[in-house]
Amino acid sequence: MGEISIKINIADRVYPLKVNMEEEEIIRRAAKLINDRIKEYQENYAVRDKQDLLSMCVLHYATSSLKAEKKVNVEDTDVAERVYKLDHMLDEFFSK
Q1: Residue 89: is its pLDDT beyond 90?
Q2: Residue 21: pLDDT over 70
Q3: How far apart are CA 67 and CA 71, in angstroms?
Q4: Helix (H) or strand (E) holding 57
Q5: 24 and 6 Cβ atoms separated by less than 8 Å
Q6: Exposed, middle or buried: residue 57 (CB in 10 Å: 0-12, 13-18, 19+)?
Q7: Domain containing 88: what range?
Q8: Cβ neighbours of residue 16 closer than 8 Å, sequence gap 6 or more
Q9: 4: pLDDT confidence band, cut at 50, 70 and 90?
Q10: Strands (DSSP E) found in the chain
């Protein structure tokens, strides 16, 4: 699919973007998540500076991303170990 031009508002600033049509919904949802997080920080903390709020959002989402990445790596390792054990068991079974 082709590219389309959209405008995304993050922290009261508008960013014109060219995105693939299939990415538009994800980008709009990401911008909404960021704006919702900024609003939450504004309501719960004495932080008003947009740069500080954006930095807090970046830290939040980077931390979440790293946690998810670590979880996937642990799960991949666990699956690989199980596959290895099953393969070993099958080798033993068929070599009898």
Answers
A1: no
A2: yes
A3: 6
A4: helix 50-94
A5: yes
A6: buried
A7: 3-94
A8: 5, 6, 7
A9: very high
A10: 3-10, 13-20
Q: What's the whole-model pTM score?
A: 0.72
Question: What CA–CA distances, in Å, run from 11 to 20, 34, 51, 62, 70?
Answer: 23, 8, 9, 18, 30
* Packing angle, helices 50-94 and 24-44, rounded to 10: 120
Q: Which residues are within 8 A (CB) of 13 and not within 5 positions of it... i.e. 6 or more apart?
A: none
- The C-alpha atoms of residue 24 and residue 71 are separated, in whole angstroms, by 28
What does each C-alpha distance from 3 to 10, 14, 20 come to in angstroms?
21, 19, 4
Number of domains in the chain: 1
Token pair 């699956």 is at which residue? 79
Interatomic CA distance for residues 59 and 93, integer angstroms: 51
Q: Is the pLDDT of residue 1 over 80?
A: no
What the block records as the tokens of 31 is 């911008």
* DSSP 8-class letter at 37: H
